[in-house]
Write a structure and sequence with these properties.
Blueprint (H helix, E strand, L loop, with lengths): L14 E5 L5 H13 L15 E5 L10 H4 L1 E5 L6 E5 H7 L2 H9 L6 H7 L2 E3 L13 E3 L4
Length: 144
Amino acid sequence: MKTFLPKIDVDARKWHVIDADGAVLGRLAVQVANILRGRNKPIFTPHIDAGDFVVVINAEKVILTGKKETAKEFMSYSGWKGGEKRRTVAQVRAAHPERLIMHAVKGMIPKNRLGDRILTKLKVYKGSKHEHQAQQPAVVAVVK
């Protein structure tokens, strides 16, 4: 028996908008990653990009449970001696709150070229304004 490969219509991809206000970061990231990969569709195939676009608004209002707000650190390294930087969640939230959600979702998708392509369909915004009204995104309720 041959493997069934679904026909993916790129033009028929839907747009979803998710409000991160009061949502727990990990639960929100799982929901976003599943929509991006297409795991909520009956035609899901692991090696095919069948997912939809996701717009996340109010990124600065996402919640972290426990002591993660002060204890969790993000580390980056420039490649130079002494080029290691560590930032707490509070510092990242103050400068670029979109990166909290981007980082969480990036860890939940495949680490290959397919994952890079999937990540381009994620749009994260600080505040409730976004520039994708023309796509008529459907509102998705977040599991809290």
